[in-house]
Structure formats: C-alpha cells, structure tokens
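Q: Given only this backbone (53 positions), what sequence would you predict?
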C-alpha cells in the first residue's frame, strides 16, 4: 500500500514537473517574443529619428 502510494505520488510529481517545464518554456517564449517586439519597435523608432534628423 505504501509502495503504491509512493508510486502514484511520484507519477503525479512527474506530471507536475512536465507541466511546469511546458509552462516555463511557454513563458520564456512569450518573454523573448515581447523583448524582440520591443526591440524591433525601438529599432524602427531609432531609424525614424535618424531619418527625421
């Protein structure tokens, strides 16, 4: 009974760990996307400033 309980808890831990890794990779992807978006906007803003000058 204790072994079965330990097995189920470990499998639940594995499921939680895989879900956490998916969430962390997704959040990292969103952060990188936001950084690249802000970077491209800032770069285009600099280019516009250079053109206006």
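A: Predicted residues:
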């Amino acid at each position: 009974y204790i072994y079965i309980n330990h097995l189920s808890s470990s499998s639940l831990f594995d499921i939680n760990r895989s879900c956490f890794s998916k969430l962390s990779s997704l959040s990292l992807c969103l952060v990188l996307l936001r950084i690249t978006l802000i970077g491209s906007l800032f770069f285009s803003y600099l280019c516009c400033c250079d053109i206006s000058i």
